[in-house]
Amino acid sequence: MSRIHLYLFLLVGVLGLVGCGQDRSTSAPAASSADTTQSPLASGAADTTDAEARVLVLGNSIAAGSGVSSREAFPARLQQKVDSLGWDVQVQNAGVSGETTAGGLQRIGWVLQRPVDVLVLELGGNDGLRGIDPGVTRKNLRGIIDTTLSTYPEARVLLTGMQVPPNLGQEYARQFRQVYPAVAEAYDRVTLIPFLLDDIAGSDSLMQDDGIHPTAAGHRLIANEIWTDLRPLLEERRPQDPA
What we know:
Strands 2-1-3-4-5 form a 5-stranded parallel sheet, with helices on both faces. The chain has helices at residues 3-13, 15-18, 28-32, 61-64, 74-84, 101-111, 125-129, 134-151, 170-185, 216-237; strands spanning 53-59, 89-95, 118-122, 156-160, 190-193. The chain starts with a helix and ends in a 6-residue tail after the last helix. The chain has 10 helices and 5 strands, in the order αααβααβαβααβαβα. The protein is of the alpha/beta class.
């Protein structure tokens, strides 16, 4: 059995029961007090809006770092990468456990109160596990992107794809898988990462005992995958040295 197939099989047995956390309310501040893994944004991280560039990670329990320390989650790993280069970039983690695309759409206006240059959009997995119509997921993702680009027209979006197990039927799994490329193709300013867990799904050393969430080593690989596309976008925004 391939890693990806094993991962999707485990999703049926575990996420089908726990749903990667509980549903949140529509208010972002209220949700942050109730979710099981607070993001730095929810818990009051320092505001560095004067940074040269700002990256916002809008996601669920994976972005929130469920089961690992906040320093080991992939958003913090991305911050470490920019810091190691001496770049004046803030990576803000707005990951909330149990988040759906509907929840992300409800709170996107709140998290966009601070400037955003790159949005890393890591949502949709919980939609698939709950059997939400893929058309609704697609509409919500587009709503999040539309709101971001209308607020900050020069922003870029990294959309991280997800897959779901076939327990709701092969046709549903196929339709869900097609959501992400369909959304990405509709925009010039959106880059697709086809499957966020492609290199780590099903690995005992890269996934936690629940078979769902990445270990610290898994988060490191996720950060590396995202960094491949993120770094060029940040380089475009860096001040050019005078000739």
